[in-house]
Specification:
Chain lengths: ~150, ~190
């Protein structure tokens, strides 16, 4: 560690931060609780594109948000639209095919089914961190998307 | 030290051991919180970042390439989530990585609970230095102290520049503090 002259200031800062902005206990408890979301036998579809990140400069406040998740053989494109305090989720499975979709969040979930073109939708999804679980017909294990706060 | 090392805890958590998971949370939750608050997110948004970051770890159990660098992985994940939330809230993100002092000067509600005057001024000074410095110093001030690797992940900066940046940020903080405390400016010239 360089700059030993600053050590007392850093120690002082540590003390002040601990007093002024300690991590709230519910935040720690929530972090512990997410362990129940461990999925043992699922393929992960990573978030590879988020319109909030790629097009930040051109975004308008009420524009829908577009997310793309990618697994080995499956891609999921999701549009998130704000409808009051909740969200409407519409999605497209690529390649298209019949699948059962479960949209999960802490405290609940909602089911959806793809149509012939691989599209699906769900209303009244809370504005929380969500993950989609996608079970294609005939597939041995589901694909789950990375958690994303909507 | 009887503590199990991070890679061991990760392996155990991946195998379904919830006490190992709890131990990881105890070890790193403060770092994640510090990063989010360093980006000046509200407590609600910081809680959101924390939740998403730990959910990301759950989904990546057994998939991390460098389990011994978990702190850095969590810090980087938290950082990305912070930037995402800043954009979601329509806040300017361009300046986040720049060394521009934050001139809001609004006293934070937390300041009220600090009854020691110098503590209060130090807390205020922390809110007035650049966002990058706030993230860095908040991360460095967490317990247990993070490695430079963890801190570099929180900032998206090379490990090699953490030392010099740390010195500069502490210097900025000290200058702000001295300004508020009203002591002689000559005092700090040696450190500049």
């Amino acid at each position: 560690m360089a700059e030993p002259a600053f050590e007392p200031l850093l120690a002082e800062l540590r003390n002040v931060v601990d007093q002024a902005d300690p991590i709230p206990e519910p935040v720690v408890a929530a972090a512990k609780a997410v362990f129940t979301w461990r999925t043992i036998d699922a393929e992960l579809a990573e978030l590879v594109a988020d319109s909030f990140v790629t097009a930040a400069g051109t975004r308008t406040a009420d524009a829908a948000r577009l997310l793309t998740f990618q697994a080995d053989d499956t891609e999921v494109e999701v549009e998130i639209a704000a409808t009051g305090a909740t969200r409407r989720i519409t999605g497209q499975l690529v390649p298209p095919g019949p699948a059962e979709i479960t949209i999960r969040w802490a405290g609940g979930s909602v089911e959806a089914r793809t149509d012939a073109l691989g599209r699906f939708s769900a209303d009244n999804v809370p504005a929380l961190a969500v993950s989609l679980s996608i079970l294609r017909r005939g597939a041995g294990r589901p694909v789950v998307t990375s958690w994303v706060s909507i | 030290m009887l503590e199990r090392d991070t890679a061991e805890l990760l392996a155990a958590a991946g195998a379904g051991d919830s006490t190992a998971w709890d131990a990881l949370v105890e070890r790193y939750a403060r770092l994640v919180w510090a990063v989010a608050r360093g980006f000046a997110l509200s407590a609600a948004d910081a809680a959101d970042v924390s939740q998403t970051t730990w959910l990301r770890l759950v989904e990546h159990l057994g998939r991390l390439r460098e389990p011994e660098h978990l702190g850095g992985w969590l810090a980087a994940t938290a950082r990305h989530e912070c930037l995402r939330i800043l954009r979601k809230n329509g806040r300017e993100v361009v300046g986040v990585d720049a060394d521009i002092d934050v001139e809001s000067g609004e006293p934070t509600p937390e300041a009220v609970i600090l009854d020691n005057e110098r503590d209060r001024l130090l807390w205020q000074s922390l809110g007035e230095i650049s966002q990058r410095c706030q993230v860095l110093l908040r991360a460095l001030a967490t317990t247990p102290p993070p490695s430079y690797q963890d801190v570099s992940a929180a900032l998206g900066m090379p490990v090699g520049s953490i030392g010099p940046t740390r010195a500069r940020c502490l210097d900025h903080l000290k200058k702000r503090l001295d300004l508020h405390v009203g002591t002689s400016q000559r005092h700090t010239d040696g450190g500049a």
